[in-house]
Amino acid sequence: MIPPLADLLDSARVVSLPMHSRFRGVDVREALLFEGPEGWAEFSPFTEYEDAEAATWLAAAIDFAWREQPAPLRDRIGVNATVPAIEAAHVPELLSRFSGCRTAKVKVAEPGQTLADDVARVRAVREVMGPEGRIRVDANGAWNVDEAEHAIHALGEYDLEYVEQPCATVPELADLRKRVKYMGIPVAADESVRKSSDPLAVARAGAGAADLLVIKAQPLGGITHALQIVTAAGLPVVVSSALDTAIGLSQGAALAAALPTLDYDCGLGTASLFLDDLADLRPVDGSIPVGRVTPDADALSRLAASDERREWWVARLARCHYELSTAAH
């Protein structure tokens, strides 16, 4: 059941959250929120996404706002710090905003930067976190196989927990995984799951392309569908944020809480990247709570997007709603 568009628009609010540091090409994160019978949900596909892809994010938001979710198996979720492609000198201050986190995900392969920049950033994280901290790196598929192999050799001395989406395609991931297997550094797939027409290709028998999956509630169409993918894949998973507001993070936490096993800290501590948010879901002692989040009324007003941006998001909502409605018929 797809609720009428009018039901979504009744409570729709468009917000604009400023960030401490540029991340994923944005300085300000925009999102459209609406409230359903089960509570608030977030619709926030990145602005460059086409409507067909963005409609999956709307399906996830509707599912979270209108349908009862799986029962949680845990009440708090351990999370990692997220380190954007900042200068190494700024790493200590950034990590100080992630209370108690003993895992850090470090952005690497940023356009316009070099491997030396990545090495310096990862080294700085290791210096702050000490030998017991866990460091994972994320290249967002930016390297070819040779570049990835070279980078992993350069970064390997800092004891990587895993490398996330080092290359763009499943065959490249499989080739790289064979090349670096002797180093004992696992390969995780993210974009190969959430942006693929076949999210299970990376885990299919014989592919040999990944040791674990990074999953996100919004891009995968909601918690139930994400859990189905996890079950079918049969690999360990990390639940991560799509740079969500506190509302979207609560959906990610609900997904993580519903997993039968959760062996890794999750990428759900990204509230610490924002200067302001709709509610406070920043990590405390390295974890965030599980539970529905209601946006603070003052924050909704304080963070309201401009009229022009609101019109843009409402038009996008209407187009994606049409996509879902026609697909349902």
Describe the structure concisely:
This protein is of the alpha/beta class. The protein contains 11 helices and 12 strands.
Structural descriptors:
3-stranded antiparallel beta sheet, globular, 329 residues, alpha/beta, TIM Barrel, 7-stranded parallel beta sheet, Enolase-like, domain 1
Describe the structure.
The protein is built from eleven helices and twelve strands. It is of the alpha/beta class. The chain folds into two domains: 5-69 and 297-328, 2-Layer Sandwich (Enolase-like, domain 1); 76-289, Enolase-like C-terminal domain (TIM Barrel). The strands form three sheets. Strands 5-6-7-8-9-10-11 form a seven-stranded parallel β-sheet. Helix 5 crosses helix 6 and helix 8 crosses helix 9. The mean pLDDT is 96.
Mean pLDDT: 96
Order of helices and strands: HEEEHEEHEHEHEHEHEHEHEHH
CATH fold description of the largest domain? TIM Barrel
User: What would CATH call the class of the largest domain?
Assistant: Alpha Beta
Low-confidence stretches: none
Chain-wise SSE layout:
Layout: H1 5-11, E1 13-23, E2 26-36, E3 39-43, H2 51-66, E4 76-78, E5 81-83, H3 91-95, E6 103-107, H4 115-129, E7 134-138, H5 145-155, E8 160-164, H6 170-180, E9 187-189, H7 191-194, E10 212-215, H8 223-233, E11 237-239, H9 246-258, E12 287-289, H10 297-302, H11 307-328
Parallel strand pairs: 5-6, 6-7, 7-8, 8-9, 9-10, 10-11
Antiparallel strand pairs: 1-2, 2-3, 4-12
Helix pairs in contact: 2-11, 5-6, 8-9
